[in-house]
Amino acid sequence: MERGKMAELESLETAAEHERILREIESTDTACIGPTLRSVYDGEEHGRFMEKLEARIRNHDREIEKMCNFHYQGFVDSITELLKVRGEAQKLKHQVTDTNRKLQSEGKELVVAMEELKQCRLQQRNISATVDKLTLCLPVLEMYSKLREQMTSKRHYPALKTLEHLEHTYLPQVSHYRFCKIMVDNIPKLREEIKDVSMSDLKDFLESIRKHSDKIGETAMKQAQQQRNLDNIVSQHPRIGGGKKYKKDVCASSDLEVKNTSPMSEQDSGILDVEDEDDDEEVPGAQDLVDFSPVYRCLHIYSVLGARETFENYYRKQRRKQARLVLQPPSNMHETLDGYRKYFNQIVGFFVVEDHILHTTQGLVNRAYIDELWEMALSKTIAALRTHSSYCSDPNLVLDLKNLIVLFADTLQGYGFPVNQLFDMLLEIRDQYSETLLKKWSGVFRNILDSDNYSPIPVANEELYKKIIGQFPFQDPELEKQPFPKKFPFSEFVPKVYNQIKEFIYACLKFSEDLHLSSTEVDDMIRKSTNLLLTRMLSNCLQTVIKKRNTGLTELVQIIINTTHLEKSCKFLEEFITNITNVLPETVHTTKLYGTTTFKDARHAAEEEIYTNLNQKIDQFLQLADYDWMATEPGSKASDYLVDLIAFLRSTFAVFTHLPGKVAQTACMSSCKHLSTSLMQLLLEAEVRQLTLGALQQFNLDVEECEQFARSGPVPGFQGDTLQLAFIDLRQLLDLFIQWDWSTYLADYGQPTCKYLRVNPTTALILLEKTSRVMKDTSRKNNVFAQFRKNERDKQKLIDTVAKQLRSLINSHHL
C-alpha cells in the first residue's frame, strides 16, 4: 500500500516538473532553451515528457486552427490588397529605377567632386595635425638649436640651463617622436661635453694664473706699499683730508668686487695685461687683473650636475701642486734682489687668488684649507730664505731683502694671514746683517788705517777747523786760542773712524725699522752690534796696524794719541745712540758700549809695541858695538855706536811730548833697563873669554854716557835719580873691578847698606875669571897686570882666594 502511495507521489512530482519545463519552453527565448531541454534529457522520464510535449503541441495547433478560421476573410482581403499593391510596386520600381539611372548619370560629376573634396578635407586634417605636432616640436628644436649655439660660443652654463629646460619641459611633450628619443639619448653626452669643456676652461685658467701669479703679487705688494705710504702721510699729517684713496683695503678682502664674477659671464679666462704705472698713479686692485668667471662657471656647472665635490677636490689638488711649484725658489735667487722679489710676488699672487676664491665662493675652498696651505708655504718660505740669505755677503742687499720681507709680510697680513714667524725669522737675518755689516766696516776701517798718514791734522783757516770739529767732538781751549795755521793732536783717521761708527749705527737702525720692535729692543740691538764692531773689527784692525813690521815709532805714538781721543769720544757715541733710540742709558738692562776698553787695549798694545820697537832699535845699535876686550888703555870718549844710540833715544823721546806722561816715562825706563841689561850681557857673554882693565875702563866710559843721558831727563816726570837706577847694576859692578874693592864687597855682602848691593856673586865670579885668564897669559905683552909680574903669584893667590869666597857665597845662597 505504501509502495502504491509512494509511486503515486512520484508520478505527481514528475508531472509537475514536466509542466514547469513546458511553461519554461513556452516563455523562454529560443536561444536560451538549451539548459531547459538538457534537464529533460538528464531525467529518466524522457518518454513521458515527449508524450506531454506532443499533447501540448496538438493543443496549440487546435488553437491556431480556431484562430485562423476566425480571421480567414480578413486574410483573403489582405491578400487581394497585397496583389494590388504588387502591381503598383512594380510601377514604382520602374520609376525608381529610371530615376536612379538619371540620378546616377547626373551625379557622376558630383561624386568626382565629392571625392576631390574628401581628399582635400583629408589633407586639410593632415596639415592641421602636422601643424599642431610641429607647434609642439618647434620649441624643442629651437631649444636644441639654442643649446648648440651656446655650446659653440662656449656659453656653457646657459647651455646647461637650456639643456635642463629641454629635458624636463619640452622633450616630455613630444617624447614619442624618434628624433626626441635621439635627443634624450644624446643629453648625457652633452652634459659630459659641457663638463669637459668647462674643465678645460678651468685648466686654462689655472695655467694662466700660474704664469701670472708674479704680476698679481707685484700689484698686491704695490697696493700694500701705497697703503703704508698713505698711513705714514696720515700719521705725519693727521689733518690733511682728500687726496687719492687706496683702491683696495687689503684687510677687507671679503668685500672685493670682481668684474665678470657671475657664472653667466661669457668672457674667456685669463689675466688682463696691465702696464707698469707710475708711483703717483693708482694701482689697480689685484682682483681687477683676474677674470674669475671660468672658476665660477665650472663650479656652478659641476654643482648643477651633482659633481661639486669632484670639482672641489680637483681644484684643491691642482692648486696644491701649483703651491709647491711656487714655493720652490730658483737656485740663484740669492744673487739679486729681483730674484727674491719675483719669488715673493708669486707667493703673494697665489694667496691673493685663494683669498678671493674663499670670499667669493661658498665652499670651494675653506679657511682650514687656506690655513693648511699657508702653514706649508710659511715653513718652506722661511727655510728658503734662511738658506739663500746665508749666501749674501752684501749688507745693502740684506737690508733690501729685509724691507722686501717686511712688505711681503705686511701684504699677506693685510689678507688675514699670520706672519709672526716671518718677523721672528727677520730677527735671525738681523744677526746675519750685523755680521755682513761688521765685515764691510772691517774693510772700511782697514782702508782708513792704511791710508792714514799718522800725522796731526793741520788746519789753515777757521772753515777747516769747524769742519773737523763738526766731524769729531773735540774741545781744547788752548788749541782754539792758537793762531792759524795750527794742528789737531790726532790724525785724520780719528774723525773718519768716529763717523764710520755713527754710519754703522745708522745702518743697524735701518734694519730695525718696521720690525715692530720696542725702543729698548732696538737700543739693545744697536749697542750689541756696536760693541761687536768695536771689540772685534776695529780692535783687530788697530792690532793689525800696530803689529805691522813697517809701523814706526812715530806712527805708534800717533796711534796712542788717536786712541786716547777716540776713548774720550765714547760718551758722545752713547749720547748719539740714546738720541736715536730714545732709551736713556740709566734704563735697566741697557747694554754699555765697550769702546773705552777697546781703545785702551789698542793703546796698551801700541805702548807695548813702542817698548818692543825701542828695544829692537837698541839691539840694532848694540850689534854695531865692536869692543877690543884686550885693549891695554881706554879711549878718550864713549864708543861711537853708543853716542849714536843716545842721540836716537833723545830724538825719539822728544816725539813723546803728546803722549801721556806715564807712557813716555815707561818707555824711557824700559829702554834704559833694556840697554843696561844688554850691556851687561856684552860683558858676560861666553864668547868673551878674556877681559883687560883697559877694556873695562872703555866700557865704563860708555856706561857713564848712559848715566849722563839718564841724568839729563829725556822725559819729564822722573823724581831724582830714578832713571839712573836702571844702570845701577853696571855701575856697582864696574866700580868693584876698577877700584878692586873686594874686601869691602866680601865684608858687607848681604847687608842693606852694602856699597855693592846690586852686584851678584855669580856675575862677579864670571867677570873675575875673565880678568884672571889675562893674568895667566904670560905670553901676551903689555899685559894689564904686567906691573905686578914680580908679585904675580901673590896676585893670583888673591884672585883665587876671592874666587873661592865668591863660590862660597854662591853655594850658600843656593842652599
Automatic annotation (TrEMBL):
Residues 421-770 form the Exocyst complex subunit EXOC6/Sec15 C-terminal domain. This is Exocyst complex component. The keyword Transmembrane does not apply. Residues 52-221 form the Exocyst complex component EXOC6/Sec15 N-terminal domain. The keyword Oxidoreductase does not apply. PANTHER family: EXOCYST COMPLEX COMPONENT 6B, SEC15. Component of the exocyst complex involved in the docking of exocytic vesicles with fusion sites on the plasma membrane. GO terms for cellular component: exocyst; plasma membrane. Keywords: Exocytosis, Transport. Belongs to the SEC15 family. Pfam families: EXOC6_Sec15_N, Sec15_C. One of its GO terms (biological process) is vesicle tethering involved in exocytosis.
